[in-house]
Amino acid sequence: MAFDRQQLRIPGPTPVPPQVVSAGARPMVNHRGPVFKSTMMNVLERLKKLFKTQNTILALTGSGTSAMEASVANLINVNDEVLVLVGGTFGDRWAKICSAYQAQVHILEYPWGEGVEPQQVADFLRRNPRITAVFATHNESSTGVLNDLQGIGAALADSDALYIVDAVSSLGGVDVRTDQWGIDVVCTASQKCLMSPPGLAFISLSERAKQRMAQVSSPRFYFDLRIYMEWLAKEEPPFTPNVACFFAMEKALDLIESEGLEQVFARHMILRDMVRAGLRALDLPLLVADKWASPTVTAVKPKFDNIGRFLAELRDTGVELAGGQGRLSGEIFRIGHMGNASPLDMLTTLAAIEARLGSHGQAVAAAEQVWSRAQQEQRGGQGYEGDSV
Ligand code: PMP
Fold this sequence. Notes:
By secondary structure, the protein is of the alpha/beta class. It folds into two domains: about 5-15 and about 260-380, Aspartate Aminotransferase, domain 1, CATH 3.90.1150.10; about 20-255, 3-Layer(aba) Sandwich (Aspartate Aminotransferase, domain 2), CATH 3.40.640. About 40% of the residues lie in helices and about 15% in strands. It has 13 helices and 14 strands. It has helices spanning about 20-25, 35-50, 65-75, 90-100, 120-125, 150-155, 205-215, 225-235, 245-260, 260-280, 305-315, 345-355, 360-380, and strands at about 5-10, 55-60, 80-85, 105-110, 130-135, 140, 145, 160-165, 185-190, 200-205, 295-300, 320, 320-325, 335. A hairpin with a 4-residue loop joins strand 6 (about 140) and strand 7 (about 145). Helix 12 packs antiparallel against helix 13 (about 360-380). The longest helix has 21 residues, at about 260-280. The protein is globular and about 60 Å long. The structure holds 4'-deoxy-4'-aminopyridoxal-5'-phosphate.
């Protein structure tokens, strides 16, 4: 199967729309000239609507993990006590980064396949008043769980701890209300819901976070966010940035804005509900209960062995899915439905899955019903609140 005809249904990188590909292929410009200055400022300003924040947003040339590491390097001192909420490999990544920076890491582990209970976070903070920061994962891509960011934010209300969130696989596809939910730091990246190639990470910083940054003595240079702040005041990047990815992002933001952010969120919920209905019709067990189901990625824990072979066969038919990670490796497979993904794409993906499993039409019919119902609700002006949550 030619790779350009492939259905890329993994939890990132996601399919880049053709207009975004072309925008990214523009001839190079001077990164200190007027064209780049206006592009960079335009992208950072418009991202504030997606982050739902008045806070400063900085761009880093790197993947999502670069923004995660920058948060730790700039906000955590050696021996600071931090709380990391771990329910999958990306929560675990926060813990690893904090350990690398020699923080005293407390882990609140919640089951892989469930979300964290905000009350547990509140109880932990009450018992451990020295915690200086709480690290959360909004959408745990390794399990397909969407955590309750608002609830976790409320659990932090009586604490001085900074609230630091990985929204790498949610921001731009799922509502993230940075200011309303009291989130000090939000990290995301270009290659997931933002429909651009990999290569840029974005990080928002509250006033509290900026103040903390000034008191942190951890060694840092390329990711020293104080340097990025100084240069931002001059509307320039400190180092040569990923210029092509900025051009792509500008076009991707056009697409998101013309669809409308709330409609983008509704579409992701429709995709989730279509995929879940289709998989249920095939008796494929879902890893995550409806309450925690992610609008951007769905994990399946099939009863059959050799998921690797199943995924390789699907790849031969032109559909690329993802396997499991960490302790779920070999146990699950995952379907990405974020960014540039449509209901029709879900029908194609489900058709390929069911054909491999010897079923014909059941999954597609179940998903199609969800889609029809959603369209009716939307035409009736009700919006789409979701089928299964
Ligand atoms: N956090 C989450 C939730 C992710 O899904 C990913 C990417 N899969 C990352 C962090 C890491 O991002 P990157 O691979 O861009 O460094």
